[in-house]
């Protein structure tokens, strides 16, 4: 039995297909504690490439990396009521060390706003101290009821940025600057077309003044939140007493933000681009961009393989499969791992002074003169990335609908699940009613709005706002 036999077709059982991809591509394994996973080297390498690029972008705007503790005292966390209410069902608590009961319960961080805010209180004295622009790459824990590798796990990896500014305008502008960095990154590196917008009152981050998001659509028509950026105004500053002396010599509360993306981006990549043969990885975050497979390991084949690897390694992450597995197994493994390009080299090819280059996405094979390999690899990688982005974009367009009534909405959910743009009043009670009826929720209020009078699709109240709703992971 080959590895390919273990992958359930995605149109038969999308959930099982997803799990088969994760396990067969050796991205992760299940850990002993329910809801946690072991990041295997190939899966962690994808995260490292994501981290490397985003870290570079953050540093361009003067964000500094820090690391804050894992444990948060209960009394400190409980200061911001809306925040604690939002996270309380998911918080894991440490109450004992050995045989000793702790004098105060300690929460394992679900996020670090309160620790950061408590620290900022001691750091911020004057407008000259601002802005403070911090980010940490860390793990957090949220005790999820339903889990799935990368998408929703009890412990996950992420980056969380936290900043304090001396004006509302600066803080709000920075919130949107981060959102634009996220959008550019997921579009150019992960090849995910996303919709940018603001979260509704019901869906905004607990304790935030406003939350902004990038939303993508998976192959099966369910939405996935790929990143969020939160503008707190002075909400946290008032609770945690973060004050500074402004230019007029008066005390003023600081204006803060927080923002983050997580390892669920790996889940988004899998569910947007992959197929029944395994992973399909965007080239810029593929740990191996080009794999060389030798049909026979003759001296000449080995020599040319090393030569091509050395030539391409200046631009790409290249390896040579030197295992003693069969040629068919090597091909299967390269497909499952989603390696964008495969170069096959055998004695007969070398007699003709050619190699065979294959694309993972289209299965297209091309005989290429050895002297033209670098040029052809350049063009094929570019075409490969363009194609998988366009396939994801076409899927989103095909699954995006606009309706005006709850009955139309239900009909579309049954016939063409995806993003559904509706006129919406924005009231929490109305959104809760929609969720109860359809198991869907709002995804975002898109920035571009038509300025016209409408009726809410559910409660029929007057509105000028359109909102994307969907089923979501």
TrEMBL record:
Residues 35-282 form the Aminoacyl-transfer RNA synthetases class-II family profile domain. It is found in: Cytoplasm. It catalyses: tRNA(Pro) + L-proline + ATP = L-prolyl-tRNA(Pro) + AMP + diphosphate. InterPro entries: aa-tRNA-synt_IIb (IPR002314), aa-tRNA-synth_II (IPR006195), aa-tRNA-synth_II/BPL/LPL (IPR045864), Anticodon-bd (IPR004154), Anticodon-bd_dom_sf (IPR036621), Pro-tRNA-ligase_IIa (IPR002316), Pro-tRNA-ligase_IIa_arc-type (IPR004499), Pro-tRNA_ligase_II_C (IPR016061). Keywords: Aminoacyl-tRNA synthetase, ATP-binding, Cytoplasm, Ligase, Nucleotide-binding, Protein biosynthesis. PROSITE patterns: AA_TRNA_LIGASE_II. CDD domains: ProRS_core_arch_euk (cd00778). It is an enzyme of class 6 (ligase). One of its GO terms (biological process) is prolyl-tRNA aminoacylation. One of its GO terms (cellular component) is aminoacyl-tRNA synthetase multienzyme complex. Its EC number is 6.1.1.15. GO terms for molecular function: ATP binding; proline-tRNA ligase activity. It comes from the Bacteria. Homodimer. Consists of three domains: the N-terminal catalytic domain, the anticodon-binding domain and the C-terminal extension. Belongs to the class-II aminoacyl-tRNA synthetase family. ProS type 3 subfamily. This is Proline--tRNA ligase. It comes from Mesoplasma corruscae.
């Amino acid at each position: 039995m080959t590895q390919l036999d273990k992958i359930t077709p995605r149109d038969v059982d999308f959930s099982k297909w997803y799990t088969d991809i994760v396990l067969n591509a050796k991205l992760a394994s299940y850990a002993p504690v329910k809801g946690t996973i072991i990041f295997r080297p190939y899966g962690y390498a994808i995260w490292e490439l994501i981290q490397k690029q985003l870290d570079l972008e953050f540093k361009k705007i003067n964000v500094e990396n820090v690391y804050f503790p894992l444990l948060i005292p209960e009394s400190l966390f409980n200061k911001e009521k809306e925040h604690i209410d939002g996270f309380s069902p998911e918080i894991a608590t440490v109450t004992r060390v050995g045989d000793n009961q702790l004098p105060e319960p300690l929460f394992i961080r679900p996020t670090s706003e309160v620790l950061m805010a408590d620290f900022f209180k001691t750091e911020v004295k004057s407008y000259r101290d601002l802005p403070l622009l911090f980010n940490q790459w860390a793990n957090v824990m949220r005790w999820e009821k339903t889990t799935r590798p990368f998408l929703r796990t009890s412990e996950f990896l992420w980056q969380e940025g936290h900043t304090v500014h001396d004006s509302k305008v600066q803080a709000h502008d920075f919130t949107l600057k981060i959102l634009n960095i996220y959008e550019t990154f997921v579009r150019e590196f992960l090849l995910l077309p996303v919709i940018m917008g603001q979260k509704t009152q019901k869906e905004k981050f607990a304790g935030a003044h406003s939350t902004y998001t990038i939303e993508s659509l998976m192959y099966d028509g369910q939405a996935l939140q790929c990143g969020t950026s939160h503008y707190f105004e002075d909400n946290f500053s008032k609770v945690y007493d973060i004050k500074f002396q402004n230019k007029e010599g008066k005390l003023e509360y600081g204006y803060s933000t927080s923002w983050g993306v997580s390892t669920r981006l790996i889940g988004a990549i899998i569910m947007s681009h992959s197929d029944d043969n395994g992973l399909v990885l965007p080239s810029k975050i593929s740990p191996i961009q080009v794999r060389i497979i030798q049909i026979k390991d003759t001296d000449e084949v080995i020599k040319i393989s090393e030569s091509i690897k050395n030539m391409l390694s200046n631009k790409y992450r290249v390896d040579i499969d030197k295992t003693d597995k069969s040629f068919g197994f090597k091909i299967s493994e390269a497909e499952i791992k989603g390696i964008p390009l495969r170069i096959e080299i055998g004695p007969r090819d070398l007699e003709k002074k050619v190699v065979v280059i294959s694309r993972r996405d289209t299965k297209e094979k091309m005989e290429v003169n050895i002297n033209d390999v670098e040029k052809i690899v350049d063009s094929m990688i570019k075409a490969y990335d363009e194609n998988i982005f366009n396939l994801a974009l076409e899927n989103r367009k095909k699954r995006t609908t606009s309706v005006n009534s709850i009955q139309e909405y239900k009909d579309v959910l049954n016939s063409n699940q995806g993003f559904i743009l509706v006129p919406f009043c924005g009231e929490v009670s109305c959104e809760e009613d929609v969720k109860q009826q359809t198991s869907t929720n709002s995804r975002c209020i898109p920035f571009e709005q038509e300025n016209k009078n409408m009726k809410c699709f559910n409660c029929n109240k007057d509105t000028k706002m359109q909102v994307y709703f969907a089923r979501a992971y």
